Each structure stands twice: as structure tokens, then as C-alpha cells.
């Protein structure tokens, strides 16, 4: 798995947006790495929003879903919006079945990115 994160040139109204891009498998061998990167992004940038880009992710298991949930919770604790974008059809189905698509702001239309959700504290 490869993870990159960068400040987006398109900030959200409340401040900076950081895009975390995941390439490869999100499984038990990599889930801690992904969750750690989300926590590092929060600590380094204090963004208003984090967008997890799954366009190049190839697989996700329950520990990967757990890492996304942990990232969402860390973002919520920091009053940071958290969205997941560009999941493959298989990922989209898993997120929908588990109810996580609503939590993560995944748009129903796969041609569009998920909306930015504001986390209320």
C-alpha cells in the first residue's frame, strides 16, 4: 500500500483541505499505517477537512474499514470534516451495506465526489 497526503489547492470555506490518497490494499497489514497517516495529517495541518481518495485502492477488509472509522472519529474530535471519495464499485457496495457511505459522505453518484460533511461537536 502507498499513502500520500497533500494540502489541496481548493480549500473548503472553513480552512485547508488535505487529500489522503490510498493506493493498493487496505488490510490488516496496512490499516494501522493508514490510520496513523490520518492522525499525522490532523496534527501537522489542523485541516478543516480531510478527503480520503480511494480511486486507486484495490482491496479493503474489516480492519481497513476499522481504520477509516478511527480516522473519522479522530477528525470528528478535531472538528474536521471527513469524506471518502472515488471508491470502486465493490468498495462503494461495502460502504453502502455497512452504512458507512452516509457516515463518510460518499455520494450516491459514482461520477461525482462525495459532499463535504461538517462534523458537529
Automatic annotation (TrEMBL):
Range of residues in the leader sequence: none
Record-annotated STAS domain positions: 7-121
CDD domains in UniProt: STAS_anti-anti-sigma_factors (cd07043)
Alphabetical list of Gene3D superfamilies matching this protein: STAS domain
Family statement: Belongs to the anti-sigma-factor antagonist family.
PANTHER family: ANTI-SIGMA FACTOR ANTAGONIST TM_1081-RELATED, ANTI-SIGMA FACTOR ANTAGONIST TM_1081-RELATED-RELATED
Record's protein name: Anti-sigma factor antagonist
Gene source species: Catenuloplanes nepalensis
Source species taxonomy: Bacteria, Bacillati, Actinomycetota, Actinomycetes, Micromonosporales
